[in-house]
């Protein structure tokens, strides 16, 4: 008599007359003695969608990291105003003379109507700007979520009550409207309204505003996980042995919240990318001449571009869709790798 059984990390085998089959024994021998992290990595490598998504995400990060080098090899930068440098490439309205936005062997993605920036270099620098801001926000949110969420869950009592009420209060804010309304206020703290705002001030303001209303969900998840963990036997054993609260949190709690932390991080970063792009699109984030994904969408929505060069929207639009979809699929794969029993 035979019956199928699941093999840890994927695949199936059979039990013959109540005894595990050869494949079962081989798989069990391979997995024996592996740590949870190693098992997670084995399951993740077997997920073709996850591996492809990880490669796509890595590709975007490499583009952002090496944007200056790519620009140097390409021979152009995102700040040259070709409408002034080479006016013969544009008509009287500032639209590229060549079809499809001036796409050619010289200008791979064409030229921007109006100022005439090179679209290819503007796109790769825009990816660099958006990812830099989003990664900084994600790091700040993760640190805050760990500190407050784990502290609230493990310590409990007044600490939990205070942090919980702060979270409830901040979650009541309409985040998108708050982002739009608070950006000028935050910027004005650094620069007088009469002066031109430096790019670094806008970057700092974007990070602060998104961080301020971005950490609560992660903190709630880590609080719930920490609440469940503090009742476990190994935590009680650590307390009996005389370990301090800090040591218990560092040695016992934190290693056991890595799973929800990684999964949530893979979902948060693309959300911050779209939020940052949305703020720049509305004119309260990054503005010209600094390249940015959202700023490119804002330019593409103007009447001049929409009527004369519809291809301009194609490159930032497709690149953002690919990045967001790949990162979300990566998040699903990481979740499934940590929890193989979860159904998609």
What are the main properties of this structure?
344 residues; mainly alpha; three-stranded antiparallel β-sheet; 17 helices; 3 strands; elongated; disordered N terminus
Summarize the structure.
By secondary structure, the chain is mainly α. Helices cover about 65% and strands about 5% of the residues. The chain contains 17 helices and 3 strands.
How many helices does DSSP assign? 17
Radius of gyration: 26 Å
Rounded mean pLDDT score:
81
Residue fraction in strands:
under 5%
> In total, how many beta strands?
3
Intertermini distance = 31 Å
The major sheet is characterized as:
3 strands, antiparallel
Order of helices and strands: EEEHHHHHHHHHHHHHHHHH
Strand order of the largest sheet: 1-2-3
Q: Structural class per helix/strand content?
A: mainly alpha
Query: Helix fraction?
Result: 55-70%
What features would you describe in this structure?
The chain is mainly alpha-helical and 344 residues long. The chain has 17 helices and three strands. The protein has helices at 22-31, 36-45, 48-65, 67-74, 82-85, 99-102, 119-155, 157-171, 175-190, 199-212, 216-229, 233-240, 245-253, 258-281, 293-300, 303-308, 314-338; strands at 2-6, 12-16, 19-20. A three-stranded antiparallel sheet has the order 1-2-3. Strand 1 and strand 2 (12-16) form a beta hairpin. Helix 7 (119-155) packs across helix 15 (293-300) and helix 14 (258-281) runs antiparallel to helix 17 (314-338). It is elongated and about 80 Å long.
